[in-house]
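Q: I'm a student working through a structural biology exercise. My instructor gave each of us a protein and asked us to get a predicted structure, then write a short paragraph describing it. Mine is Transmembrane protein. I'm not confident about reading structure output yet, so if you can add a plain explanation after the tokens, that would really help. Here is the sequence I was given:
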Amino acid sequence: MTRWRIAAVATALAGYALLSHALMAWWPEQPWSIAVLFGPLLGGLLVAGLARRHRPSLVGAAGLGGVLWLVQQHDGGSRVEMLYVLQHAAMHAVMAYGFGITLREGSTPLITQMAVRLQRSLPDAQRVYTRRLTAIWCGYFIGMIGVSLLIYRLTPWSWWSFYCNVLTPLAAIGLFVGEYLLRYRLHPEFERVTLASAWQAWRSVDAAR
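A: Happy to help. First, here is the predicted structure for Transmembrane protein. I'll explain a few features afterward.
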């Protein structure tokens, strides 16, 4: 991916994050806000269901669409806010599960799978490191749910919106980039890979699952 494409994608994502924060903070109950904020999740479920003939995804999309319609029609208010919180928590719970299940005895940790796709063979030190890193990401996703619930309970709604739409993606990017920069200080013997190749490895592992 060329630099201008990376810049365009980053700009688009930043714009969507700020738009989502504005809609969620000031107009959370409006139908068009709900459509914009839940659209990516609904679209993802539909695409996954149709492309892979995955019935649970289609059922989930239909169920979520029905719940959104009912809540919006019958006194949204705090119920709509709770749906946003649940959406944020559910997405992080799915990610935590996706990383955590690969830590079971006899399974290959998710980040180890990515590393093998990049390097084919890994020394024992890298296998230990990638297993620990998989556990760190799993803990990160669980921690984000906990922080989300605390902010929702203890602060104004606009603060939670900022956390969800702006701080959440920045935290994920920070962990991804920070680990990349720290890795070679801790383990200079590891074979070097680029951020772009790591992202491609993630996509290939995700597509194969």
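A: Here are two points you could use in your paragraph. The chain has a mean pLDDT of 75. The CA atoms of residues 184 and 192 lie 8 Å apart. It's a good idea to check both against the output above yourself.
Q: Great, thank you!
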